[in-house]
Amino acid sequence: MKQNSMEAVDYELQKQSDGSQLALVFMQNPPVNALSKAVRIGLIANIKQALADESVKAIVISSKQSLFSGGADISEFASGDFEPPLPAVLDLIENAAKPIIAVLNGPAFGGGLEVALACHYRVTFAANKVGLPEVNLGILPGAGGTQRLPRLAGVAQALDMIVSGRPVAASKLSGVFDLVVADPAQLFSESLTFCQKVVAEGAVVRRTCDITIDASTAHAELFAQFRLSIAKQARGFFAPERCIQAVEASVALPFVQGLQREGELFLECMQSKEARAQQHFFFAERAASHVKDYDKTTPVRDIQKVGIIGAGTMGGGIAMNFANAGLPVTVLELKQEALDKGLALIRRNYESSAKKGKLTAAQVEQRMALLQGTTDYANLADVDLVIEAVFEKMEVKHEVFKTLDKVCKPGAILASNTSTLDLNEIASATKRPQDVIGMHFFSPANVMKLLEVVKGEHSSPEVIKTVMQLAKKINKVAVLVGVCFGFVGNRMIESYGREANRLMLEGVKPEQLDQVIYDFGLPMGPFTMGDMAGQDIGYFVRQSRQEFIQHDPSYCILADKLVEQGRVGLKAGKGVYLYAQGSRTPIPDPEVLELAKQEAQRLGIKQREISDQEMLERIIFPLINEGALILEEGIAAKSSDIDVIYVYGYGFPVYRGGPMQYADEIGLKTIYDAMCKYRDELGEYGQHWFQPAPLLKKLAAQGKRFADL
Ligand code: 3HC
Ligand code: NAI
């Protein structure tokens, strides 16, 4: 980002037919025209210059970048240096004696839109997107957005935009724009005509702050209803309630006091741990694409055609991602029957989206037309990328990769969706291990945003770069990880399931623990999740890893016994919980508690009352500890990558920023001490499973954070 205010804002004068001048002020701060210190200084200087120039009759604020502005410069937040404050820039704009017209040549978000709201007139094109996404950063629009938007757009519309953070097309937003042109190419010429008209009509300065909100359109009931409507998705977040209060202030208070109230609420949000976490996550998500394995000079392969092996749960969802992005996909199964079943399921998924109004019937057909089924490997000869999603068995994967090596053209990328198997061993089935890579999608693959890109020992930088970039095209957030059992996400989740089972043996009721984890912010607790996914999935993984667990006779013993009794979860109507026919509501089952009691007795484990805090620590801290081991081993390159995996792959609450940010927030010493405490208190079990990772120990002793690495 540029530091020089002269470079950050451009100033041009344009002579009008009546001899007067129009001042054009362009923000110039790539990549997103953030309102950095330099831009704020530049805006003040240029607006003052235009106001002082008698020949200037009106001022335009716009940009020559693709965005009007992405808002305040978030990277400056940590510095605490807000001088000159954005509200002061807007004050200068709103109180200027000459009309200032915002010409939104591209998206305007946050402070960017707030600049426009403070101008006296606004012009844009119909498809342009504007929004106040501050809530996603754990804050609220702090430069008058909560006071000006309700005045222009009405309270209901403003409330929705500010609390959801969702961008809106200009054509859908009433009350904000004075002119919305259909064709973006005509925006500047039509804006100039508009400015001339404003000048010709007396250069009237129309201040947003002078608009009075009709309180009858914003009664208490509206706010009460709104609070109810967002309660579920706002659970645990700090900012949404403050956003609502700020909009309430726009109705209840005169403009200046409203601004003051907005300022107080903004500060409260800014100082919250939720804001720290959400801002951390904003940068974590973007940082995931900054990897050291390639650089700008690394070539990227062109991916035009994709092959998928296996049309099961994962193969079908993966195929949909590519069809959604307009890429033709060939799906291969060994038997026609399995192929038909897989393709029919994809169609049903699309049709169900169409029923919900998310797709048109024509779009369903377009996407289905991109999907070809085959049982013949010869049809994969010309694909640029093939993703294998067959049974999780090394022999089967080997067979598939051997065949792919024979049939696929040179340079085709051969990817596996394996969730646990050794990618290097899979690659060894081919004569081109440099072209083999892991693409670990999460279920449902057409919905979940996360993609773990697994680099094998020989995966080439070119292949890694191609897949990382392709992820964006199919609307995924890719995180690059190394090879180990379960990679990052599933390796860490192992301790989560193990500890949940152990806690039940020690006397915790499943619904108690599930409530603690739900209250922490995950969508559901481990037992509900296990029942929903199917308890048999973990069972089969454990069966193949007996060597890993043989030293601990209590290891997931309850889960194993339940599966052996046919209690595999929701699909069987019983798992850890019982389920009434057709219902997904878990019902606690005393039989399960009795089983836990018997097993505890058999294993010599004393059942006791366990506090919520202990439950939380024993579930979350070992997961963080595993994250530390993963960092030490270089399986993840940075702690923020683990956070991205956990938020997008496992529903870890974004207002906690991910497990590693959560650990940094509460302090690594706290985690280290608790790990030592449980190691010492839980006998042999503790000795085995609660050994703090050396990296955790080191950072805790140095008073450092994972983010400092
Ligand atoms: N401040 C600082 N840096 C920003 C930024 C911002 N507002 N917005 C984006 N960036 C950076 C990103 O970190 C990224 O950096 P990198 O290349 O080093 O990783 C780079 O700009 C490009 O960002 P994206 O990859 O996200 O680019 P896209 O083109 O995909 O998306 C965007 C552009 C839609 C503007 C998206 O970046 C975005 O949503 N930005 C945040 C918008 C926002 O939340 N604005 C409100 C800011 S808070 C505010 O205005 C407070 C005010 O009310 C007082
Ligand atoms: P699935 O059993 O639903 O589908 C596998 C499909 O592959 C079946 O349709 C089967 O007929 C087909 N198949 C088997 N052998 C084949 C062969 N030799 N050639 C062509 N097709 C063949 O399994 P699922 O769940 O889709 O898993 C597939 C892979 O994805 C596994 O490696 C699994 O570990 C991984 N995975 C699964 C996730 C999940 O949640 N189900 C999540 C992430 C990865």
Automatic annotation (TrEMBL):
Residue ranges of the 3-hydroxyacyl-CoA dehydrogenase C-terminal domain? 486-579, 616-704
Instruction: List the Pfam families hit by this protein, alphabetically.
Output: 3HCDH, 3HCDH_N, ECH_1
* A biological process from GO: fatty acid beta-oxidation
Which first-to-last residue range defines the signal peptide? none
Q: Which GO terms describe its molecular function?
A: (3S)-3-hydroxyacyl-CoA dehydrogenase (NAD+) activity; enoyl-CoA hydratase activity; isomerase activity; NAD+ binding
Entry superkingdom:
Bacteria
Q: Does the UniProt entry include the keyword Isomerase?
A: yes
Q: Which InterPro entries match?
A: 3-OHacyl-CoA_DH_NAD-bd, 3HC_DH_C, 6-PGluconate_DH-like_C_sf, ClpP/crotonase-like_dom_sf, Enoyl-CoA_hyd/isom_CS, Enoyl-CoA_hydra/iso, NAD(P)-bd_dom_sf
3-hydroxyacyl-CoA dehydrogenase NAD binding domain segment(s) = 305-482
**Keywords noted in UniProt:** Fatty acid metabolism, Isomerase, Lipid degradation, Lipid metabolism, Lyase, Multifunctional enzyme, NAD, Oxidoreductase, Peroxisome
User: Catalysed reaction(s)?
Assistant: a (3S)-3-hydroxyacyl-CoA + NAD(+) = a 3-oxoacyl-CoA + NADH + H(+)
What positions belong to coiled-coil segments? none
Q: Where in the cell is it found?
A: Peroxisome
Q: Does the keyword Heme apply?
A: no
Pathway recorded for this protein: Lipid metabolism; fatty acid beta-oxidation
Similarity field: In the N-terminal section; belongs to the enoyl-CoA hydratase/isomerase family.
UniProt name for this protein? 3-hydroxyacyl-CoA dehydrogenase
Q: Which organism is it from?
A: Paraglaciecola hydrolytica
